[in-house]
Design brief:
By secondary structure, this protein is an alpha+beta fold. The chain is built from 22 helices and 28 strands. Among the domains are: 268 residues, Rossmann fold; 83 residues, no CATH class.
């Protein structure tokens, strides 16, 4: 009977023979050191949600479980645990890690994947684009960084992955995220001037994910990276065309192969001469400069002489380092020299440097002389070919459907404001079906209201997100249920203590009884609390607890029913030294 040791030895023996290990060896890594880390599970790492009222309590809890701060993230925003990813010890540690994540107090995220947002240069009031956003860890990291003024447009082309993205946005209670669905290579034109900051964390072969994705040991050969190259370039070039002058774009992959990394960066620099690479430094983590030369590999991962175009599957001269391109007589000497001089500004993270996964990051900046004010995508070739008296045609956007995101009806907004005694005038309000979403004003001012140029030089009229396909805008704060606008749990995280109407204060004793499952008849509840004339439907109860004020949602019907999910109930129970709900029942 084979044991765990036999399986580990067999896996290591295969890994030593794999093209992936040959790639690491060809790129100068010490094979034994790299393999020792690349075959081990990742440690559990996560971010702390920055804007929760009980952030300090959350930090205290994770430290009590052995969490150690990631120094390069700073300000106790990210931690590493003393156990492997997904393998918290049974008991309190396992339960608390799950509860803190499910209630949005932490976000489990591989440490290496935090680098693109950590390194991105962006002002707090930026309009940013995450081109390949699902499942949403980088989107939410950027959304928290730009909160409350900036906005993140989170784009995901695959319908099945959109749900993960939307769920993560709601889990953290973030209002400054707009979810769109486009192929990143053809992302639509939003109104000018464009995006101030862009993350292009593109699809890749995942050769640096060996610690969580064992299949990559068996699946990868160099031709797989060459297959990805064109799509990676096309996504990044499209992002560059939507970047405002002076803006920054971060390109990243979880791949080790230079064909998916430095070669892509080099090709983007050739196609977009208005871009330059930005030097990046980060204290507290070991990172390596980008490569200026790399070998051509056969399917076994071994270096071969410079090939002709048809010598290797899917090979193109664009996959070569600048000096090798010139050796084959491809490219302009001055341009290739300029590209080569910038490649060391990229950053590489290896598995065995910091006990993480591997990663690659490069940051572009749109250089500008000050005269250019809009992204390249808005410079109409058609306009330049017409007389000065030519004016574009203003086209009416398509009429919204039942699934469209539209501006909230004034009557609905006034009803909700009156119902909860809250002023929402500083936000933009959106409806999709029976949900009312709250978002920063920028969503209206830069994405919805202005007209947007077409690809033929005409203009789509304003007051529409078209041609960008917006699936969700902002935070779903209220839901229409049985003719009553119920405040959603994620909205209570943000606005709960601001509501002045449709809310009543109860004693801590009543709060605890409700939390422990008490669902009294309406008469019983009013007799005990002396709260008369409670309106039917959605209602809020507020109580002063040892750590501060808590506001929870209930439903007033024949009985008073708690409308708060089990995970949040268990967090509150834990804070009150009560047993977990399943233990009590």
């Amino acid at each position: 009977m084979r044991g765990p040791t036999d399986a580990a030895e067999e896996r290591r023996a295969y890994a030593q023979r794999s093209p992936l290990t040959a790639l690491a060896r060809q790129l100068g890594r010490d094979e034994a050191s790299w393999l020792n880390t690349a075959l081990e599970p990742l440690p559990e790492t996560f971010r702390i949600s920055l804007h929760r009222s009980d952030r300090a309590w959350t930090v205290e809890q994770v430290k009590s479980l052995g969490a150690v701060e990631l120094p390069w993230m700073g300000d106790e925003t990210a931690f590493v645990m003393p156990f492997a990813r997904g393998r918290a010890p049974e008991g309190r540690a396992q339960r608390m890690m799950a509860l803190l994540h499910e209630t949005g107090r932490i976000t489990r995220q591989e440490a290496a994947s935090m680098l693109p947002v950590r390194l991105l240069t962006a002002n707090s009031d930026a309009l940013a684009l995450d081109m390949c956003a699902a499942p949403g860890s980088k989107t939410t990291q950027l959304g928290e960084r730009l909160h409350p003024e900036g906005v993140v447009v989170a784009n995901e082309p695959v319908s099945g992955r959109l749900n993960m993205l939307v769920s993560n946005r709601s889990r953290l209670g973030l209002a400054n995220i707009v979810v769109t669905q486009h192929d990143g290579r053809h992302f639509g034109r939003l109104p000018p001037p464009g995006f101030d900051a862009i993350i292009a964390d593109v699809p890749c072969t995942g050769t640096a994910t060996t610690r969580k994705n064992r299949d990559v040991w068996w699946d990868w050969t160099p031709k797989e990276s060459r297959k990805m190259f064109k799509m990676q370039v096309d996504i990044t070039v499209r992002g560059a065309s939507l970047l405002v002058p002076g803006g920054h774009l971060v390109y990243s992959t979880c791949s080790m192969d230079p064909v998916e990394n430095e070669a892509v960066v080099a090709e983007v620099l050739r196609r977009c001469p208005y871009l330059e690479l930005v030097p990046m430094t980060l204290d507290g983590i070991e990172l390596h400069p980008g490569l200026t030369a790399w070998p051509v590999l056969n399917e076994e991962g071994e270096a071969v002489p410079l090939p002709e175009t048809n010598d290797l599957p899917f090979f193109q001269p664009e996959h070569l380092a600048p000096s090798d391109r010139l050796a084959l007589g491809v490219g302009d000497e001055d341009q290739e020299a300029a590209v080569e001089s910038q490649l060391p500004h990229c950053l590489r993270l290896w598995h065995d440097d910091n006990n993480t996964g591997g990663f690659f990051v490069a940051q572009f900046r749109y250089t500008s002389d000050g005269e250019e004010t809009v992204a390249n995508a808005y410079r109409s070739r058609r306009a330049t070919r017409h007389d000065s008296d030519w004016t574009p045609t203003v086209k009416a956007p398509p009429k919204p459907t039942s699934n469209s995101v539209v501006m909230a009806e004034t009557e609905v907004v006034h009803l909700v404001e009156s119902m909860y005694g809250v002023d929402l005038s500083a936000s933009s309000l959106w409806q999709r079906g029976k949900r009312l979403n709250v978002a920063p004003p920028m969503v209206y001012e830069r994405l919805f209201k202005p007209p947007s140029p077409t690809n033929k030089g005409d203009v789509w009229g304003g007051d529409s997100f078209h041609p960008v396909r917006v699936v969700h805008a902002g935070l779903p704060a209220f839901t229409l249920k049985k003719n009553s606008w119920r405040s959603r749990q994620e909205a209570l995280y943000v606005y709960g203590n601001q509501f002045e109407s449709n809310v009543a204060t109860v004693t801590p004793e009543v709060f605890v009884r409700l939390l422990r499952g008490w669902a009294p008849l309406l008469e019983e509840f009013t007799d005990e609390t002396h709260l008369d004339n409670l309106p039917a439907g959605a209602f809020l109860l507020r109580s002063s607890l040892p750590w501060g004020t808590e506001t929870i949602s209930v439903w007033v019907g024949a009985r008073i029913t708690l409308m708060i999910d089990v995970n949040e109930q268990n967090i509150l129970r834990y804070k009150l030294d009560l047993p977990w709900r399943d233990e009590e029942e």
